[in-house]
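Late entry, written up from scratch paper. The run itself happened at the end of the previous shift, but nothing got recorded in the book at the time, so transcribing now.
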Amino acid sequence: MRLVEDLLKQASAPASAYDLARLAGEREERLYPAQVYRALAELVRQGRVRRIEALNAYCPTLSTPGAIVFVCNDCSRAFQHDHPEIDTALRLALENHGLRLDRLIVEATGKCNECRQQTSDTRS
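Output as recorded:
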């Protein structure tokens, strides 16, 4: 489990289980995707790793578990941002409709500043 977490911390962008198995191989460590998935499931359960639904990949949790995740469509980097007002508003909306929250996932996609600068996209 420690190897999987270390590999995620060293990755420049969110990584899939297959990416992590390949990265382990580059370090002359042997990991099969099934082993990686088990480790990732436990790390997610512990709140140390977050699954990025939009990418079907994982990254270390850098903020609170309910943080909003912004994913760049060009470079696939993920940025985590705590925004308690949105979290609270979504939870209240669910309660108002009589829904019990099991898991809250808020992800937004777009283009990061670095990728916008590379393509001269100056739209805000």
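The longest strand covers residues 68-72.
(Scratch paper discarded after transcription.)
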